[in-house]
Amino acid sequence: MKNPFIYFLLLTAFSVSAQETQVQSNDTIKNLKPVYIISKQQSPERMPETKDNVLFSGKKNEVLKLSNINGNLTNNNAREIFARIPGVTVWENEGSGLQINVGVRGLSPNRSWELNTRQNGVDISADVFGYPEAYYNPPLEAVESIQMVRGGASLQFGPQFGGMLNYVLKREKAQPFTFETQNTVGSYGLLSSFNAIGGKYKKWSYYLYNHSRSGKGWRENNRFESRNTHAFVEYRFSEKTKISAEYTNSDYEMQQPGGLTDAQFKANSRQSNRERNWFGVPWNIFSVNFDTKVNANFDVNVKAFGLLGERNSVGFTSAANFEDVINTTTNQYANRRLDSDEYKNLGVENRNIYRYTLGKAKQNLAFGARLYQSNTNRFQNAKGSTGTNFNMSPEGRYQKDLQFTTKNVALFAENQFKVTDKFSVTPGIRYEHITSTAIGRIDIAEGKDVNFDQQTRVRNKPLFGVGFEYKWKQTNVYANISQAFRPVLFSDLTPGVIVDVIDPNLKDASGYNADFGYRGIYKGFLNFDIGLFYLSYNNRVGGLTQFINNDPTQGTYLFRTNLGETLNKGIESFFDLNITKMVGIEKPYGNLDIFASMSFIDSRYVDVKVITPSKTDPNSLIETNLAGNRVENAPRYIHNFGLSWGNTNFSATVQYKMSGRIFTDANNTVTPSANGQTGILDGYEILDFSSEYKFLKHYNIRGGVNNLLNKDYATRRAGGYPGPGILPGEGRTFYISIGAKF
């Protein structure tokens, strides 16, 4: 961060010298570089009223600048990084960080599928409407900032209930050439290397990085290898017009240790009885971005983008209470199950902002259009090898061979009406046209194909919303209410997980988000945001616990169906207090910050009766009344507290997370099932420490300890991948990293 006082003195001295001294033709002139004093200032920040042709006025939003956060960026530790955004639930499948699983306001964190996940404004999930799971996320060492906009994002980014999550990658904006490297070692064989070059020369800008990481994992049978490469190039035709292209190639393989029963978890949470389960994801994202200023009042942006990806898994997928052992008759393991998806997506998105005057006030109109098509080929349940390695060669054909297509046209507009200099109203509308098609084979019975007749669903969905904002100097009151929508997913129509059973008559979900809050900066030392939220989610798809063969001794399965309406409401608050700045001693003693993000979440089903068929007798109906039940995977509270100190060279953060217990099914089953797939999960409290030391202008050493007190905990139960069963969080681990930037 620039020290404005020193910079002002330098400019003043140069200006006075230029005025009082006549420069001769043979004089030597030296340009002095400005002096920077850097110390970490705690995020989050907020988006301005308009940025990148998007209106943010009246919307709850946060911007995390990762250079200002101490945390385990190497392993993408979402628990540390998202701690400063209140209400974020994090699922921790294992410690590699290859998949970031976050949700907000009591929504499921499963691969961030209730959020519109993006990288540099481009979709990165498998299929935005049919299968919105984010199997890929960028390495956080390559990320400059993370932008999150809550439900009010549905009008400009898409109808998701959770809002929009955007990873903004680093760019070098000043020097012709820079080189950055960060190299890390850590517990259980962690090795990581991030290397990047970038620069700006005349009208050209570029940035390239490669990130490679591997480890053995905290649990048994939890190895992983990952590589992520990214290239960006930009050409500026003028100050008003530029074009850029970027490409990301990612590939990772991980050995999945599987889930545990409750008894196994209590005995030894590090154990694993699955050494033959593997998961791999090659992912490619490409885009072309065009920006131009037509005139002083009209800006245009067009993005063309695409995605080519795969999801591959092989493993022994029975419940955790079934051992994967060698058959004494054949002297071999059982054949494993193979599943594979292929994704091919293309899209074009146009965003514009038009500034005009109405009365005496300047107004902002943001509008645009989107065309999107995705094609998914899903191959499931083939007989795999009896070996232990990552072998995706099937023995025979896949039982399921399905093709899904999504076509989407969207139009959207929002207008910020400035009633006064302080008060603005921002109404908006989004129109979604979605056509989803499914066809293929769903089984092979007695050597004959059992086909899935083509099904086509067409939706025409208008969404409305309005935001309000009243500003003072550095604070503002905001409010927003926006409709949301979630189509039935491909995975809902054709069960891909091992134990779940799917209701064939699923309906699309709809509802709305509402926000009201007060946020801002007070006298430069207090950063705060406190607000209320209300989320209505109609026809929510969830899981009801049923006994296998109606026999409690045989375990349970989840019947996935529409569970009616859920209401999520609560309080979200954040504050960061710079104590040394408050008392005026930050210059000699550095910045001492204390922060807290606290959320209280009440997520419940309203009065609704769900009728489900018996698994053994379809003519026998089971009635379940969920009225008053808590929504599964929604803790009643999520609190994060932190203490951070930093000066020019050194900074350190201690962070404490508290998360309440959760039910893992809509029945609110308390007693754990024999297979570990249902039952309440206790809340947990985790302490993390991280630090950074900068020296010799260009170098740094980072280090930290995660789960400092070595607590046993779990954030989720799984019915299928990557379980099934309880998935433990990691125990105590450490990392140390050395880096440089020239």
Q: Keywords, please?
A:
single chain; disordered N terminus; Plug_dom; 742 residues; mainly beta; five-stranded mixed β-sheet; membrane; 6 helices; 22-stranded antiparallel β-barrel
Topology (elements, then pairings):
Elements: H1 4-20, E1 50-51, E2 54-55, E3 61-65, H2 78-81, E4 88-91, E5 101-104, E6 115-119, E7 122-123, E8 143-149, E9 163-169, E10 178-186, E11 190-201, E12 204-215, E13 224-236, E14 241-255, H3 262-267, E15 278-295, E16 298-315, E17 337-358, E18 361-383, E19 400-418, E20 423-445, E21 448-471, E22 475-486, H4 490-493, E23 501-502, E24 509-522, E25 526-538, E26 541-547, E27 556-562, E28 566-578, H5 579-582, H6 586-589, E29 591-605, E30 609-613, E31 621-625, E32 637-646, E33 650-659, E34 684-695, E35 699-706, E36 714-718, E37 725-728, E38 733-741
Per DSSP E runs of 2 or more residues, the count of β-strands stands at 38
Number of helices: 6
Helix content: under 10%
Label the overall shape: globular
Indicate the low-confidence ranges by residue numbers: 1-39
β-strand percent reads over 45%
The structure class reads mainly beta
Report how far apart the termini are: 18 Å
Largest sheet: 22 strands, antiparallel, barrel
Chain-averaged pLDDT: 90
Radius of gyration: 27 Å
